[in-house]
Amino acid sequence: MNGPDQGEMYRAGRPALGARLLAAVEAVRPGRKVADIGCDHGKLAVWLALAGAPLVTAVDSRPMPLEKAKALVRQCGLEGKVRCLLGNGLGPVAPEDAEDIVIAGLGGEVTAGILSAAPWLRDARFRLVLVPTSRHPHLRRWLSESGFALLGETPVLEKGRPYTVMRAAFTGEAAVPTGLFCQVGLVPRAFEDGDEKTKKAAGAYLNARLAALEKAGRAPMDPPARAAHESLVKELEACLL
User: Fold this and answer.
1) Is 59 within 8 Å of 36 (Cβ atoms)?
2) Are 174 and 147 within 8 A, CB to CB?
3) Residues of the chain with pLDDT > 90: what percent?
4) In percent, how much of the chain has pLDDT > 70?
5) Distance CA 92, CA 182 (A)
6) What confidence tens digit (pLDDT) does each residue in 17-55 have?
7) Cα separation, 11 vs 109, whole angstroms
8) In 3D, which of 5, 37, 200 has the Cα closest to residue 114?
9) Is it the case that residue 130 has pLDDT exceeding 50?
């Protein structure tokens, strides 16, 4: 999605966004209605509206952050394009009011729970833009086993921490993903083919997943599990060569 750049937004008194939320804005399809789940302060919702979304439904389960989001929407004069709703997950969102679903800033397991509670998402016309803060392998496994395909991943660095922005859609073709796919998904493609900035972010992400595996490997395991774990570590190391 194309919209005003960060500098123009900041100079105009609009909220600045970090790298991961900027990447989420870019992952949304132009001109589509969007649901921002777990909207928090409302900055992402405002950006989505300014970038051309005809309607943004911003949802949060906490009243205080939602009031801040409402205040920001009023400040930016976007009451007609952004509506802020109190509720859990996608519960307050009607299927006809969203085409792209953004869930950023939540753990992968929580994100999967939100998606599983909205069976209407099992339709190819919807797109998911997911920016998990943790439990990435769990989310990728859930997507694959539930018939969703990853369309792309954009790795980004924010304050030195690696994230990935996942784009997914329902295909109905459930699959059992490999251990390596659960760990890193499509990030190795960016490590091989991206520009220098993207390659740096992808390398940081792959190294972070490798460190997590190495930490997990210090726990006791039976021999078959140990062999599978060591094989997975070698596969991930090969991605970094």
Assistant:
1) yes
2) yes
3) 92
4) 94
5) 30
6) 999 999 999 999 999 999 999 999 999 999 999 999 999
7) 37
8) 37
9) yes
* Predicted local confidence at residue 2, as pLDDT: 54
User: Could you say which DSSP state residue 15 is in?
Assistant: P
φ, ψ dihedrals at 157, nearest 5°? -110, 130
Half-sphere exposure of 29 (CA within 13 A, CB side): 14
Q: How many whole angstroms separate alpha carbon 56 and alpha carbon 63? A: 18
Answer for the pair 104, 24: CB distance below 8 angstroms, yes or no.
yes
Rounded to two decimals, the pTM is 0.93
CA angle 220, 225, 229 (to 5 degrees): 90
For residue 109, the model assigns a pLDDT of: 97
The whole-number average pLDDT for the span 136-148 is 98
Q: Is the pLDDT of residue 5 over 70?
A: no
Name the token pair of 198: 């993207």
Please answer whether residues 135 and 108 qualify as being in contact, where contact means their C-beta atoms are separated by less than 8 angstroms: yes
| Side chain identity at residue 30, one-letter code | P
- The 3-state DSSP class for residue 64 equals helix
Helix (H) or strand (E) holding 60: strand 56-60
Q: What is the 3-state secondary structure (H, E, C) of 190-222?
A: HHHHCCHHHHHHHHHHHHHHHHHHHHHCCCCCC
Residue 14 has pLDDT above 90, yes or no: no
Reported as half-sphere exposure (CB side, CA atoms, 13 A), residue 235 has a value of 16
Amino acid letter, 2: N
- Helix then strand then coil, in percent of the chain rounded to 5, is 45, 20, 35
Q: Which residues contact 32 (CB under 8 A, 6 or more apart)?
A: 53, 54, 99, 100, 127
Q: Which residue has the tokens 């001109």?
A: 31
